[in-house]
């Protein structure tokens, strides 16, 4: 109860408005961070404003007829009514050029926010949040809401997808992954994603990156109840003052978690025990406008998770518990000039993990103290209206002190450079980038060459966009890989080299009155993949032995009507482990996702999401086990939101979400059955 004061304090304030989300970019199509957006309304004394994040995205509560001003040093101040903003994209012009907004690069191409999930009841309160809506993103979970959860693009390794929160890296130094179950579903409602981002984020972003943020789209408090003993309460609130802003996201989750599943051996229903979760979450983002050309940003994230660890069906552990206490603090200073900007940022995180199984067959007490700190300087400069560049320097330190590993420390120094050349007349852009990372035992350089052509063969009804990316990316060995204690059954390997990937990706999209159709082909070749395997003494050690390739084909369809939105994605994967001439583990033959959002009227909204996962290999055949295959399965989720009028205001919202509507029996990880249909009721009060 000591943390519940936040929940009750937020109820005391009132603000009513309609949420609008948009993207601000320059004439090269690059997002512009830290643009100040203000509602122009002389009849209101209280200032209503917002600031774009580092992806150029903003959210503001205002009516459809509200006038917004967009202002940042170095760009011409622009004012538009919300209903005049086409495709939710706003282009700001440099102060030293004289072009009309309709003539700039890419100004007519974005009818949808690029690489950003949409908001709906399933995105806010469904178990997977908005992650289930991202094309080609595959989720792996270990049973129920409390089970460890990870995400990867195109069925790749989870350690090859970088996960950030408000732009701050969440990677676990020990295993190189992020357990998404430590974040509640309502914190996953707003996600930006990016493929092939190796030169942007370095190690761990071979396949792509996910940036979760706590943009507050509307002020509310909420309470949820659902199946399997699920309950949750929390609040989202934004506090605006004339020169400062706070976005607060808070919540408490409880989950009993016990559910029944069909035992494949005897065919009977068995109850899965010890799958509870007690979770607290708090994220606070503070923005201070010191001057028109100087903004300070402070971000705090705190999560506390206590859960039962049910284990797999073959090795149950009904008494095991795991706790994860994570704290993060980030600070950035942002100075703007007429021709560019300078950003200095620092962050630090502490993660305390404890695994305790005192009554198991092998009693275990494992404690891990993880520390992460980084310092970054990032500068941007425009040489001319068509040529700009960005250079950055990063130094980060990772420390581990645990019962398994003696205290270890790794320091990484990184340099990155990227440029953009835009031909405004012919609507194309070249974007080369290079990166160099140095760690005491390894050094790695990567590159990316991007080509983008927009509005080609343009006529009144249709236009084509083309994108090409060629480059490389990598993954440093993790602490576990390098320093796992040398014992009878396993040991680390300090001689490991980084995992490497070379990629080629091409996409073509057509924008017409029928909607947007996008075709993508991607080829990736991996080498020096790290695999733990037994040596001649049957001791498991990690070695750079595996090489693989993966080809992905994707087709997307997007269409937005006045009251209906549809997003369809279908993926085909061809993967090969070159060492054993088999498909890669857990990579499906194909996958598909369908998202439909229907606005019946101003009060009632419906959303439906279908996620199909094709046939996969879960376990290779060996001398002591047969190959385990998993047939395709599809998960259907449904949501409905209804807004009620109370005391003359539309402030009460009833949400119903149903995960696994068809009660499908499935597993995403071998040995970990998932629960069946789950119904959740959420009541919101709009502040």
Question: How does this structure look, described?
Answer:
The protein is mostly beta strands. The chain folds into two domains: 5-103, Immunoglobulin-like (Sandwich); 121-686, Beta Barrel (Maltoporin, Chain A), CATH 2.40.170. A hairpin with a 2-residue loop joins strand 19 and strand 20. The two termini are 22 Å apart. The model is unreliable at 1-17 (pLDDT under 50).
Offer a concise description of the structure.
This protein has 687 residues and is mainly β. It is built from four helices and 43 strands.
- Give the helix tally: 4
Estimated structural class? mainly beta
Low-confidence segments, given as residue ranges, are 1-17
Number of domains: 2
Which architecture name of the largest domain does CATH use? Beta Barrel
CATH topology of the largest domain: Maltoporin, Chain A
| Shape, principal axes of CA atoms | globular
Number of β-strand runs:
43
Strand content: over 45%
- Largest sheet, described in full? 22 strands, antiparallel, barrel
CATH superfamily of the largest domain: TonB-dependent receptor, beta-barrel domain
Oligomer: single chain
What does the radius of gyration come to?
A: 25 Å
Mean pLDDT, to the nearest integer, reads 87
| Gap from first CA to last CA | 22 Å
Estimate the helix proportion, in percent: under 10%
Classified by CATH, the class of the largest domain is: Mainly Beta
